[in-house]
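tool=predict chain=A
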Amino acid sequence: MISYHPDSRFLTDFAAANLPMSEAVCVSAHLEFCGKCRAHVQQLADIGGHMLARLQPRAVEEDSFERLMSRIGDGDGAQQTADAVLPAAQESLVLAEEVSSRAGLAPTRGVFLPRALRRLSAGGLHNLSWVQLGNALRVAPVRISGDARDTAIYDIKAGGRMPEHEHRGEEITVLLKGSFSDAEGSYSRGDFVVRNAGEAHQPMATQDTDCICLVSLERPVRPRGWFYRLLEPYVQYRLQKTLERNTTF
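tool=predict ok
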């Protein structure tokens, strides 16, 4: 059961095609799990499309789109983003499960791969280049053109614990497989979890299965322990070198 969803800002900006690409990919991934949010985005897109259709031709000028957005809340117009995601969402879920169930995906153990991520690797997440960070965590950084955020796939071993860390900026996490917990709660497949600057936590995967997440960081995290802080420059170097080998959106 999905318990954590994008707030209204994320959904309205997504419907209006106003989100940076990395954030839009995260919202899109969540939508493929969550019918409630899909319906909400579709409703926002329908409202925007209806209001655009009522505009006089002379009103469609450079600032008219922004005025339209303000009339329907925080922004909910451009339907093309929703059109690209919503009609294929259920098909995407079925197709991804079929692809994952076929042999040859051992490193990702049948993880559901959302439609928004399938450009990363035609054969599955095992075709990505990964950085092993200790016994419990490996990371596959993802390059998204024109986006300053750090985006990656995290794979936390069953029962594994990430180093405790503090956030220097916003972090978005979408769970693709398994679950994890921290001091704030427990999170499962499909959840859309946001952490903000100044917040600290130490995610731990449940014992029964690995936890695989899509993560988008506004800024790199700050490790809490002195040992991990010493390693941070080396870790960032390895992530950057690995990023160069992975697919660009």
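DSSP finds seven helices and twelve strands in the chain. Residues 10 and 27 are 7 Å apart (CA to CA).
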